Amino acid sequence: MKEKFYQYIQDLQDTITSKLEEVDGKATFLEDLWKRKEGGGGRTRVIENGDVFEKGGVNISGVHGKLPKAMQSYFNVGDVDFFACGLSLVLHPKSPMVPTVHANWRYFEMYDKEGTVVDSWFGGGQDLTPYYLFDEDAMHFHQICKTSCDNHNSEFYPLYKKKCDAYFYNAHREEGRGVGGLFFDYCKATSEMSMDNWYDFVTEVGNSFLEAYVPIVEKRKNEAYTQTHKDWQEIRRGRYVEFNLVHDKGTLFGLKTNGRIESILMSLPPNVQWRYDHHPESGSEEERLVEVLKKPINWV
């Protein structure tokens, strides 16, 4: 399974970066190959200063070795070996009318001293973070997520949508990071779902990403905006940074397994503002966004 899924994410990285370069029309992805001294490595691809994307990354990695002590405690296991691979992407558009997007699809194995797999699971998801809320864009994104889920189990979308709203939540701000999408983790073999079934589900979600996001980008990328709109985008990006550095488990895992710091922090936007005790103007579009983020909406 690990070879099969790692090949999949290599191919998916190629598909996604090619399409995003086409959408941007100016910038291309810089590729950076890296190795982890404890075992494994990855292929980071970053795009910057484009006509559409101010900064973004589409990264894959496959790492292995002894599970670090900190992660042994986290998983409540003893001295085991592990393998983890995944594709992680974050795109920060230049225009505040185009939403930021994040996605991740991953696979994890743990082994005993004889090298036998003792546990394995899939995880992942995708979520949308707008700065100006266009309801039809959120509805489109969620509809693609729901369709991918419904092809496997009609209970998946409401369950993983709810988990996404709960996970991408800035508790210290009492607001969601964005308008959500899907979040699933510890997807293990059961009597209803084999690991091959989970592979089919996760790859269908991965394959749907461009359909979920690119039409929104194409619709919004040429809309006019002012410096006021840009300032608001950068203030909201600050909340994005807060989540990634305070709450995100992926960041934590990368730092505790001696991951590559440049790849881990690739998700951070290039320009951000933190204004003291900032509140949007009453009745404004900015205020409407904040109110929506306080309580999740059923978009489909």
Overall description:
- The structure is a single chain.
- The chain is α+β, with helices and mostly antiparallel strands and 300 residues long.
- The chain is 42% helix and 26% strand.
- It has nine helices and nine strands.
- It has helices at 2-24, 69-75, 135-150, 156-167, 195-220, 227-246, 249-256, 261-264, 285-294, and strands spanning 30-35, 40-48, 53-66, 81-93, 100-111, 117-129, 169-170, 175-176, 180-187.
- The chain has a seven-stranded antiparallel beta sheet with strand order 1-2-3-4-5-6-9. A two-stranded antiparallel sheet has the order 7-8.
- Strand 7 and strand 8 form a beta hairpin.
- Helix 1 runs parallel beside helix 5 (195-220) and helix 3 runs antiparallel to helix 5.
- The longest helix has 26 residues, at 195-220.
- The chain is globular, with a radius of gyration of 19 Å.
- The mean pLDDT is 95.
What's a quick, concise take on this entry?
The chain has about 300 residues and is of the alpha+beta class.
User: Total number of β-strand segments?
Assistant: 9
Radius of gyration: 19 Å
Shape: globular
Outline the low-pLDDT stretches.
none
Query: Helical region count?
Result: 9
The major sheet is characterized as: 7 strands, antiparallel
Query: Given the helix and strand composition, which structural class is it?
Result: alpha+beta
H-E string: HEEEHEEEHHEEEHHHHH
Share in β-strands: 25-35%
**Strand arrangement across the biggest beta sheet:** 1-2-3-4-5-6-9
> What helical percentage do the residues reach?
40-55%
* Average pLDDT over all residues: 95
| Distance between the ends | 33 Å
